Amino acid sequence: MYVCSCFGITEEQVREHAAEGACTPRQIASASKAGTDCGSCVRRIQGLLGRGQCPRRESLERGEPALTAAPAPDAGAEPPEPSGLPGLKPEPVETPAASAARVAA
Ligand code: FES
Q1: Residue 6: domain span
Q2: Are 23 and 56 in contact (CB under 8 A)?
Q3: Is residue 4 lining ligand 1, measured as CB closer than 6 Å?
Q4: Which atom of ligand 1 is nearest to the CA of 39?
Q5: What is the pLDDT along the chain (105 residues), one digit of tens a residue?
Q6: Domain total for the chain?
Q7: What per-residue string of b and e applies to 67-95 under the rule 16 or more CB within 10 Å gives b?
Q8: Is the pTM of this model over 0.70?
Q9: Is residue 96 part of a domain?
């Protein structure tokens, strides 16, 4: 069943995000955008999250770290293409002076 009709987010998706560590409607919004448009679904999301159903909160209450470090980026990996399209390089732009000189020649 849909919780957030603005973004088509279901109860199941909210529960999946909660199982992955989202404990607040804001964290659900970060993961899915649910609640970031009209906001009418935020109370329902809060209800789905409930209290004591958050694995991360339970970890904190047990004194365990709630977050794990993200894996380090691969040192040998190539940087992303600046143009956003692999293999494409930007064309040089002809200045007005260069254009005038080309036409005059
Ligand atoms: S129903 Fe979720 S933001 Fe509108």
Answers
A1: 2-61
A2: yes
A3: yes
A4: 3
A5: 999 999 999 999 999 998 898 889 999 999 999 999 999 999 999 999 987 556 666 666 677 765 555 556 666 666 655 555 556 666 667 778 877 887 877
A6: 1
A7: eeeeeeeeeeeeeeeeeeeeeeeeeeeee
A8: no
A9: no
